Amino acid sequence: QVQLVQSGSELKKPGASVKLSCKASGYYFSSYAIHWVRQAPGQGLEWMGWINTNTGNPTYAHGFTGRFVFSLDTSANTANLQISSLKAEDTAVYYCARVLFGELQFWGQGTLVTVSS
Amino acid sequence: SSELTQDPAVSVALGQTVRITCQGDNLRTNYASWYQQKPGQAPVLVIYSKNNRPSGIPDRFSASSSGTTASLTITGAQAEDDADYYCYSRDNTDNHYVFGPGTKVTVL
Fold first, then answer.
1. What angle do CA B78, A111, A27 make, to 5 degrees?
2. Mean pLDDT of successive 10-residue segments in chain B (108 residues)?
């Protein structure tokens, strides 16, 4: 069965960087794009962008350019999200999700990133 | 970029019907999909591609669309349907997507 397993919670200081992973299994990794979604505490879902798992080409939503980088490790069927120069407002749960057609069919369990001094 | 709007909250009596709406200019040319999220859990896709349910989603969930408004209907709401619901669609900017702000559904 399709599974997306995300890396564990992170506690970081402002200004640091963090790299989150999303390991896929149960399907051919390069056939379906991976999207990233952020959810700040008590807030709604925010689309961050997506990465083409066939070409590695990323697309970033407005507001997620510069400090946010999507990447792949295709040998490990893993998508990564790196966030640099962390700010308190980056505190959130970050989800990866696999696309069906345009919809987000399968979701990871989420990774909580806490940015605090 | 496009925006989607949703009512912040609605309530429904157990066993009754509730409709959640999502409005946005991009819905005139793009389908909305719908996600259910319960506290502390990842979202779950409940409707995709106009009015299709993934395996395991009860048939009390259905969707429709007209013009710039998409709707999710729960017919015969159950206690387990108490959750946040988000619409999602392709933005008018190619290859970009957007979520609505979410609707909190309370089953009384």
1. 80
2. 90 97 94 96 94 94 95 97 97 87 97
